[in-house]
Structure formats: C-alpha cells, structure tokens
Design brief:
22 helices, 72% helix, Heat Shock Protein 90, alpha+beta, 5 strands
C-alpha cells in the first residue's frame, strides 16, 4: 500500500477539508466558555464563577451523552450507507427523538431541582446557591437546542453541508457574545442572563442548521413512519465507549483537585485553571481530527474497505500528527507571553507554575492523538475490551495513578508530567492489545490496529488502480481483466468487469476532470469475495449520479451516453452515493 496511492490522496484531501469545520465547532464552544467566564468574573463577581464551576459536571454529562448519540449514529450510518440506505431515514429520526427527549428531560429535572431547592446538594450557603439556581434556569432553556444542534451538525457534515455548519457556529459565537454584553452589562440580569445568552445562542445554532431540513433539501428526512426504534439500543451500544472518557474525567478532576489542594494549595489550582483555559481551545485540533476520523472509519467499515481504514489512521498519525507537533512547539515557545495574559508578576509563585504548565502540558497532546484515534477505531470496529479499557485509562486511571506518585514530590510539575506519562501508558496498552491478538509484536500500523482477518478482502483478493489522465484510462480494462483471470473468474465476467471500469473511468476523466481547474484523481478498487466481483470507482469531481442521468435519458440520447448505458446493461447492480463530497459508484458483476 503506497502513500502515493489515489485512495490515500483522496482521503487526505477529504480529511483536511472536513477538519476546519469540526475544529471550529469545538473552538466556538471553548471560546464561548472563556467569554462567559470573563463576563462572570469582571461584571458579576467571583460568586458567578463558582456557579459556572458547579455547573461544570452537568456540562460533562451533556457533552458525553451528545457524543454517545453522535458517534453511535455515525457508525450505524456507515453500515447502512453501504448496504441499506433507506434505513438512514429511520436512524436520523430516532437519533433526534431520543437525544432531544433526554435533553428535554434533563431540562425539566434541573428546573424541578431549582424549584424544590434540591440544588442545596451542590452548595448550601448564600449567595452561591441563588447564583447557581439562576444560572441553571438560564441554561435549562437551551439544553434541548444544544444537544439537537450537535446531532444536526454531525448529519450535515455527512451530507457535505460543512459551509452551513460553519455559518451556524460563527453565528452562535456572535450571538452569545452580544447577548452576554446585553444581559450582563446593559441589563444586569446576573447569572440568569449569563445562562440565557448561552441558551439563545444554542437555539440560533440549531435554527441555522434546521433550515436546511425544513426546506426539504436534505437527503435524509425526519419521518415518524420510517422511525427504527430498534436502532436506539444500537446507538447506545456503539456510542457509549466514545462518551466513556468524558464521564470518567469528572472523577479525575475531583481527585486531582484534591491532590493539588493538599500538596500545593489553591495557588496550584489557579495555575492549572489558567493553562487549561487556553489549552481547551488548542484541544479542539486533536478532538476535531478524531471527529473526522470517526466518520471515515465508520464509512470504511461499512464498505469493508481494509485499505481505506488503514489509510485514515495513517493520515491522522502522520500528517495530522505533524500539524499537532507544530502547535505544541509554538505553545512551548510562547509559554511566558501566554502566562502574562493571566498573571504579570514573575516573582509570584503562580506565575512560574503557569509557565511550566504551558511548557509541559502541551507535550501530552501528540501521544493523546494516538490514544484518541485508537479508541475511536476500537469503538467503530466494536472491539469491546479496547474501546472500554482505553478511554478509562486515558480519561482517569493514568493521570490519577501518576499524580499520586509525582505530585507529593514535584508539586505542580508532577501533575503536568503525569499527563504526559498518561499518553505513554495508553500507547503501551494499545501495543499490548495488538500483541495479544497477533501473539507477537506488531510490525506495521495495520498490525498495530489488529484488524480482524475476516474483515474486508486481503491484498491478493483485490486490485487498486489510480487514474489521473485519459492515457491511464486506456490501461484500466487490461489490468482489471488480468486480475479477474488470475482469480479464476470466467472470461465473460472478467471482460465485462474490465469494460465497465474503463467506460466509467473514461466518463469521469472526460467530463468530471474538465469542470474546474482543480487536480482530480480516480481511485478504482476491484474486489473478488466469494463468487462476487465488486467494482468501486471513487473520485473527487463535481457530484454526478449516473442513475439520475439514466432515468432522465430520452430514447434519442442513448448514443450520447453509450458508456453509462452499457454499464447499466451489463451490471447486476449499480449504486451511487455522494459521500462527504466524493462520488462513489459501486458495480456488481
């Protein structure tokens, strides 16, 4: 498998085209949190900050639940897309119903908790309790929109509507900033106004995305008739490993905070909070990469495409890792200027603790890239043990274990180093998992992934061809026919397979390559599995569905589209889909 293959180039282009939109969503949320905190601390007071902190565990829960619905639905989407597209309408519907239902129930329970004073469990003294209650009431209004907005964001990305998701994210940020000023400074509404501004911004974020579905432009429709309730437990079953690390992080925070207070004091918490507040924005990069990879993993698994599955991981851990390492170096170089955003006196102990936070904590990001991607892959491939063990170790066990050992001796530096060592421990777990499966040390990325032998087709059961020009099209039929002959396929089907691929590849080069000034390529895969010959042609040209062209073709036009007509005459099955902006044509002979 060569990095220069057409499949690798197509997936690389797709990966980095989708990445900015997914980073933006996470960055907007992180920046919104920073803006809210600035208004809370400067315009309301220290008590408002405690209200935001006390609400934090619930934010972890909501994000974890949302991730569970998103990742579980994406994995089912990838399976249905390859084999039964009509089921996606039901999947889309049940996703919105169960995620929206849980979000609405959460809002109702929170309001009830405020009205019955059950929130005294979290804090009992005034005015902290009143501030928290007001903040909860403001936030409760937007919880359904927050969760549903994240679901639509995932489905719109799958429909290649990334520009709409970007607009929704930017508008959400702008609305939150304007309303924060309006509700906190112009009309002093306290923590209720702070929560309300976030809620209204969440509803705007949802509305901008929902317009696409309400206008009937989407491929996937909300339909109670198509609703597949049997998908609900599958979504939870497939999606919970992706949310697991978020759940256990709540416990990690409690334990680590206790250790800091015991061995360093509140000054340590201030330093850790300062470095974390900015690094939360930077974490959008690896988390965005994981979101993109999870989509591509799901689709590759749905298609049983072993080569693409490995290529996605390779892109993330080479080109994605290079980007991440560049960001880490920049953070380390800028450690002191970043610290001065929070603290100005170099003689103050908190100053040096924060500087070291910016110098050491970023080093945990590259190894975290590895553990996050392998956890996402294990989740998508339904590797139950690895998809459960790895998030628990990454989310809590590793950091807590090393913190107990290092914080008493090294103080805050011990905590920072513990986060780095956590990544090393996670990689050791990944290596051990592959070693157990293979009964030996893995020697390649594909072996480290421990892809089941029964998954997809082996290298000798397929042929991969890259086409970049009409000259290369001329040799497609010969290569495909020779492959089929070598596999013992009868001469008639071998000839038809070669002819189909040459006709369709030629059609893409002649018409798709000339529509714009961009560089294009075609990735052809021919697989022989059992008695089936499966031909797949994938390109990054403008969307073109040959099935629609066949239906719209007038009797007198057959001579103009002889290639398409021949393929539909010869094939037993032809299916087309525009997948994240790529044309994917699958032909069965």
């Amino acid at each position: 498998m060569k990095k220069g293959s057409s499949d690798y180039k197509l997936l690389t282009g797709l990966f980095f085209r989708l990445l900015p939109y997914h980073i933006l969503l996470i960055v907007i949320n992180a920046v919104n949190g920073i803006v809210d905190s600035l208004y809370a601390s400067n315009a309301i007071g220290k008590t408002a900050m405690s209200a935001i902190g006390l609400f934090g565990p619930l934010n972890h829960f909501l994000y974890a639940a949302s991730i569970m619905f998103v990742s579980g639905s994406q994995m089912l989407y990838g399976r249905y897309l390859a084999k039964d597209r009509e089921k996606i309408h039901g999947l889309f519907t049940v996703n919105l119903l169960i995620s929206g239902g849980l979000a609405l129930l959460t809002s109702v329970l929170l309001v009830a908790g405020v009205l019955t004073n059950a929130t005294r469990i979290l804090v009992s003294q005034e005015p902290d309790l009143q501030m928290l209650n007001q903040y909860i009431l403001g936030q409760s209004i937007g919880i359904p929109a927050l969760v549903l907005g994240q679901q639509l964001f995932a489905f719109l990305s799958l429909e290649n509507q990334t520009k709409r998701t970007m607009v929704a994210s930017i508008v959400c940020f702008a609305v939150n900033g304007v309303l924060d000023h309006l509700f906190i400074v112009t009309f002093p509404m306290g923590t209720f106004g702070l929560g309300l501004s976030s809620s209204i911004a969440a509803w705007v974020f949802l509305a901008v995305q929902a317009v696409y579905y309400l206008a009937g432009k989407s491929e996937w429709k909300f339909s109670l008739r198509a609703c597949r309730w049997q998908d609900a437990p599958q979504i939870a079953k497939l999606g919970y490993p992706g949310a697991l690390s978020r759940f256990v992080e709540m416990f990690r925070c409690l334990i680590v905070n206790g250790l800091i207070l015991q061995y360093v004091g509140s000054v340590g918490l201030s330093a850790f909070a300062a470095s974390n507040s900015l690094l939360a924005v930077v974490w959008a990069v690896p988390f965005g990469m994981v979101a993109v990879s999870r989509m591509l993993f799901s689709i590759s698994i749905g298609e049983e495409d072993r080569r693409s599955l490995v290529n996605v991981m390779k892109i993330a851990l080479t080109k994605g890792m290079l980007l991440m390492c560049g960001i880490v170096v920049l953070l380390i170089v800028l450690a002191e200027p970043l610290t001065r955003l929070f603290y100005r006196d170099p003689a103050d102990p908190v100053y040096q603790m924060t500087v070291m936070g910016f110098r050491i904590l970023p080093l945990c990001m590259p190894p975290a890239m590895i553990s996050l991607h392998f956890a996402s892959y294990a989740q998508t491939m339904e590797k139950r043990v690895m998809s459960t063990v790895l998030p628990i170790i990454d989310g809590m066990v590793g950091v807590v274990l090393f913190s107990f050992i290092l914080i008493p001796a090294l103080k805050m530096n011990g905590l920072y180093i513990s986060n780095v060592l956590n990544g090393v421990l996670c990689f050791a777990v990944i290596l051990a998992g592959a070693w157990i499966v293979l009964k030996r040390c893995p020697r390649s990325l594909e072996e480290l992934m421990a892809i089941p032998g029964s998954f997809g087709v082996s290298a000798d059961e397929r042929i991969d061809i890259a086409v970049r020009s009409m000259e290369e099209v001329m040799d497609v039929s010969r290569q495909v026919t020779a492959f089929c002959d070598g596999r013992g396929i009868d001469r008639r089907r071998a000839y038809l397979a070669g002819l189909c691929m040459e006709e369709m590849a030629g059609n893409v080069v002649a018409h798709g390559f000339t529509k714009d000034q961009k560089q294009h390529s075609i990735d052809i895969r021919v697989a022989h599995k059992g008695d089936d010959i499966i031909l797949r042609l994938r390109d990054n040209c403008k969307a073109f569905n040959p099935s629609d062209r066949m239906k719209a073709m007038e009797p007198g036009e057959l001579g103009k589209n002889v290639g398409i007509h021949l393929v539909y005459e010869m094939a037993s099955e032809v299916s087309y889909q525009n997948l994240l902006g790529m044309n994917v044509l699958t032909i069965h002979i």
